[in-house]
Amino acid sequence: MTQTLLPGELTLPQAQEHLRRHLTPLQEMVQVPLCHSWQRILAQDVSAPRAVPGWDNSAMDGYALRHADLQQATPLPVAHTLLAGAGMPPPLPPGQAMRLMTGALIPAGADTVVMQEQVTLHEGAIRVQPGQRLGQHIRRAGEDLPLGGVVLRQGQRLGAAELGLLGSLGLADIPVVRPLRVALCSTGSELVTLGQIPGPGQTFDSNRHTLRALVGALGFECLDLGVIPDSPEALRTALSSAAGMADVVLTSGGVSVGEADFVKPILQELGQIQFWKIAMKPGRPLAFGTLGAARFFGLPGNPVAVMVTFLLLVRPALLQLAGMNPVPEPLQCAVRCTQNLKKALGRMEFQRGIVARNAQGEWQVSSTGNQGSGVLRSMSQANCLIVLPAACTQVAAGDLVDILPFSGLS
């Protein structure tokens, strides 16, 4: 069934592709200590200034020997004991073996290491079990990282493994892209901040706390502009100021078509709108454009819609702007649904779900219940999004559905 779009409306894949094509990554590089580079994005390729490992060394506790000496079927006297980090060992005398620990350097003349469990030691000499392979249990110099080879590419985000890899090369300072600066605010006169007392019809602002956490988890600088009331003047001042200090301006609320929704007209006045409606639920009203030199995302006001649109659209866009290349696609997999689900025809829908194993060890997903876009508790209870295509109107219990685990999104 063909999806029917409203005027000016994009499908989610169209919006995602638009962002990929229209976002230019930052180019500013800074040097940071290795210990401060976690989750940062490399600004240039990193090549190995030395080989890793630097020398042939033992992968086992055992004995270094000449493989040819095993053909004699006679005991091999143990000439020496070698420890890791003890320096260059003496050459291995013919017809003898050397005791060595994991990481100890391989002595000249040795070509094989036999693990200690396959050796019998008697009166200072060893007998070796048959079946030993020439060259076994030796870590060759440069087999992990050859000298001069590219270790990590520009645009790679540095996780725990990458930090360990850079540390193994002795690199103390790492060239990374400077952190993206993201200014955010909530809009709406009905919102109050923590410490205030809500009046009739007012509520505490939750979206800024959610967005601060989501932006902070990416390692970016977050500039919190607070709550902006439903006033064109106040919003104009706040957005103009934000555009001068940030790479990205992120708002929640005020992007629909209500009488007090001023974000869109102010954005048209100060910048440019590239799209503002997406055929998805939750999250249909979402404005994207430019605000001076900054990029602008105007998210919906409903808390669930804020999270869903951030995870599916804003997060990958921020990573691309910050220099990550490539930005990985989120993990999507199919599992059985435990219950009947319904949705309206025409928009792609993301329902909150809980994926878990059943008694047979099979993965299955169930709904968190109330799917209202204002029910933030449903995001707290969920560990995935259930993906329902635009043409789908119902899912029967036992059907396969696609899910997006939160572990692959945030």
Give an overview in words:
With 410 residues, the protein is an alpha/beta fold. The protein has four domains: 9-28 and 178-321, Molybdenum Cofactor Biosythetic Enzyme, Chain A; 30-52 and 143-177, Alpha-Beta Complex (Molybdopterin biosynthesis moea protein, domain 2); 57-139, Beta Complex (Molybdopterin biosynthesis moeA protein, domain 3); 333-408, Beta-clip (Beta Barrel). Helix content is 19%, strand content 31%. The protein has helices at residues 12-22, 160-168, 207-217, 232-245, 263-270, 303-321, 377-381; strands at 9-10, 29-33, 46-47, 57-58, 62-65, 76-82, 97-100, 112-115, 119-122, 125-128, 138-139, 150-152, 173-177, 181-187, 191-192, 203-204, 221-228, 248-252, 272-278, 280-281, 285-291, 294-299, 333-337, 341-342, 348-357, 363-367, 384-388, 394-395, 400-405. The strands form eight sheets. The protein has a seven-stranded mixed sheet with strand order 1-19-21-22-18-14-17, sandwiched between helices. A hairpin with a 5-residue loop joins strand 25 and strand 26 (363-367). Helix 1 (12-22) runs parallel beside helix 6, helix 3 (207-217) runs parallel beside helix 6 (303-321) and helix 4 packs across helix 5 (263-270).
